[in-house]
Amino acid sequence: MLLFRSEEHLGRWLAERGLERGATMTPEQQWELAQAWYSDRLSHDYRRKTPEEAKATFDRIGLTGPFWRLAG
Amino acid sequence: MDAGVADRDVRLFIFRRFLEAATPPSVEETAHGLDLSVEEARASYQRLAEARMIVLHPGTVDVWMAHPLSAVPTPFLVETGGRSYFGNCAWDGPGVLAMLHADGRVATRCPDCGELLDLVIVNGKLASAEGIIHYAVPARKWWDDIGDA
How far apart are CA A35 and CA A30, in angstroms? Predict the structure, then answer.
């Protein structure tokens, strides 16, 4: 997961390396995802999200489609 | 000893020491800190790695990643409360601040042009940020090679 200056910079970087585009998100979505994923990490009872919980988190942030599916 | 209880203690000990020292504790340090034998601590590290709670350097029991923290320098420098850490990626950089419920700054460079970019969190909100985050690896493959994802 890398932060690029803009769409233009991402496109150029991928093209120069012959790499396929994956998925993108805005910094706002990234911060929301970081909070949803890590805010309980220092809890003694922390447990990893189930695939269903992860999907619900991704959905809420607008990260939908096969790219974001953890299983299957 | 209940392995589940011990593992929760060991996991939290790793994270807390990682945050205090900006480097993760060795098996020996954790054993000493939690009054465990080195063998018990080593077994716990291995169980935590199998459970994907931590990532060990291949072939060792040295912590490489305790997400969102990285034990090795990365392009994602996190500064908060006068301390600095490395996040594993563009997700984990802000993830460190989210984990700490703290304000701070994540600094990285655009892979294309090398320009310095940052995400700044103030009062728990994204105060300044620009750019776009690219995820190359689909979610279902993240753990195929977590160092690459």
Answer: 9
